[in-house]
Design goal:
Helix content: 25-40%
Structural class: alpha+beta
CATH architecture of the largest domain: 3-Layer(bba) Sandwich
Strand order of the largest sheet: 12-15-14-13-16-17
Bound molecules: flavin-adenine dinucleotide
Number of helices: 13
CATH superfamily of the largest domain: FAD/NAD(P)-binding domain
Shape: elongated
CATH topology of the largest domain: FAD/NAD(P)-binding domain
Largest sheet: 6 strands, antiparallel
Number of strands: 19
Length: about 400
């Protein structure tokens, strides 16, 4: 079978590239190894899909770890407003939540996927499910087509690699695009986990699973050396820590683990207070509740579920009366509030992270077209490229934007 254009991988980047290319009257084949489209998109944002962010372009670019100049060109052509218009076309309503995160009003990522599917259908794009591309066929330095593992050959002179990264492999992104690109001579910037949960050694925090803290700060240490500090929201899980502030600091944790020193994280439960302020609050709580046990008094200071282990960590008997708390014990409580120290396990698999850092070197891709600078006719879009950002809708927008620019030129 022969097409003008083949797109490998039907995530946000691939679907957008296919739709834009078909708008330009290209005869497009979209090949997806899964039996459904957009599996990762469906689970994104906890099934709600945080598809972009409302901030301006400078703030937006500031959320990317590198490759900002590369993306500046891309966003100049297709940015957050363009993406919302693309979907509003189909009567989807959007809402903007905290920190500019944009979600479909229905809180349902399948609404986004449905629009993409409808556009693929309306534009007569041939979608082939359940076929996994293994290589791009090149003869005399010219692209001839794509070959699948089931030995099917599809001819085209233009091919886009939109196979995603390495995280959440069960969604289909198992790094195939890196292998295909490497065979074409591309450099793959070393792959690392980004936006990762953190595994913790101390077992007592397992009892805190599901408890979230809205405003904490985390300080990272390798041995005694302070490496990084971030503030925000987090949640305890059965293996450790997760949530926005944890994702934020996770890249530094990954690097710190490479130093082969003991890596610890200090949770500060009350980052807005200094020692004096906290002491005043503790004394005032104790004074207000003279006949009460310390564990009951603490209900005003910490989430209910963490109190027992927190007091245990500070070596305080929770059944003790507030009036019996000594100055020494108050100091221990203050230390617990400001520096609850947890030991990081030396495991941070890419498969458990939200994003893969690294990928096809942006220097080898023309940012105005997404075409390979090494092999004419080969294009890239989405997470397979060395682009990664913080949480907040930036990664999805980057996938859609690079996908659109790719489709506009392929
Ligand atoms: C749990 C989770 C939640 C997330 N939530 C958000 C969020 O709310 N907001 C946000 O901005 N970002 C979020 N992200 C990140 C975002 O989902 C990705 O950045 C985005 O999906 C990347 O799009 P992509 O099209 O490049 O790759 P993918 O979405 O990974 O799509 C690649 C596709 O290619 C297919 N494929 C791979 N190899 C082959 C092959 N050889 N042949 C054929 N097909 C192939 C795969 O099956 C897959 O369908 C989240 C990620 C995860 C894991």
């Amino acid at each position: 079978m022969s097409f003008d254009t083949i797109i490998i991988g039907a995530g946000p980047a691939g679907m957008m590239a296919a739709i834009r290319a078909a708008e330009r009257n290209r005869k497009v084949l979209l090949i997806e190894r899964n039996n459904i489209l957009g599996r990762k998109l469906l689970i994104s944002g906890n099934g709600r899909c945080n598809l972009t962010n409302s901030c301006d372009i400078e703030d937006f670019l500031g959320k990317f770890s590198e490759s900002r100049d590369f993306l500046r060109n891309t966003f100049a052509k297709f940015f957050n407003i363009d993406l919302l218009l693309f979907f509003k076309d189909s009567h989807i309503k959007f809402k903007t939540e905290q920190n500019g995160c944009v979600f479909p009003q229905s809180d349902d990522s399948s609404d986004i996927l449905d629009v993409l599917k409808l556009k693929l259908k309306n534009k007569n794009i041939k979608v082939l499910l359940g076929e996994r591309v293994c290589k791009i066929i090149v003869r005399n330095k010219k692209i001839e087509g794509a070959l699948t593992y089931s030995r099917k050959h599809f001819a085209a002179e233009h091919i886009a690699i939109t196979t995603g990264g390495l995280s959440y492999p069960e969604t289909g992104s198992t790094g195939d695009g890196y292998k295909i690109a490497r065979r074409l001579g591309h450099e793959i910037v070393p792959l690392k986990p980004a936006l990762s949960p953190i595994h913790i050694k101390e077992r007592f925090i397992r009892d805190w699973q599901g408890i979230s803290l809205v405003d904490v700060s985390l300080t990272l240490f390798a041995g005694n050396e302070k490496i990084d500090e971030r503030s925000g929201e987090m949640i305890f899980t059965h293996f450790g820590l997760s949530g926005p502030v944890v994702f934020d600091i996770s890249a530094s944790v990954y690097d710190a683990l490479k130093l082969k020193k003991e890596v610890t994280i200090a949770i500060n439960f009350k980052p807005a207070l200094d020692h004096k302020g906290l002491n005043t609050i503790l004394l005032s709580e104790f004074k207000k509740n003279p006949g009460k046990t310390i564990k009951n008094t603490f209900k005003n200071l910490l989430p209910q579920g963490v109190i027992r282990q927190f007091l245990g960590y500070c070596d305080i008997n929770g059944d003790k009366n507030t009036s019996q708390i000594t100055t020494e014990e108050r100091k221990r409580l203050a230390k617990g509030f400001f520096d609850l120290r947890l030991t990081v396990k030396d495991e941070m698999p890419i498969k458990g992270s939200i994003i893969t850092r690294g990928g096809v070197n942006t220097k080898e891709i023309n940012p105005k077209t997404m075409e390979s600078r090494l092999m004419k006719g080969v294009f890239f879009a989405g997470e397979v490229i060395n682009i990664d950002a913080k949480t907040g809708g930036y990664n999805m927008q980057a996938a859609f934007s690079t996908g659109w620019v790719c489709g506009d030129n392929i």
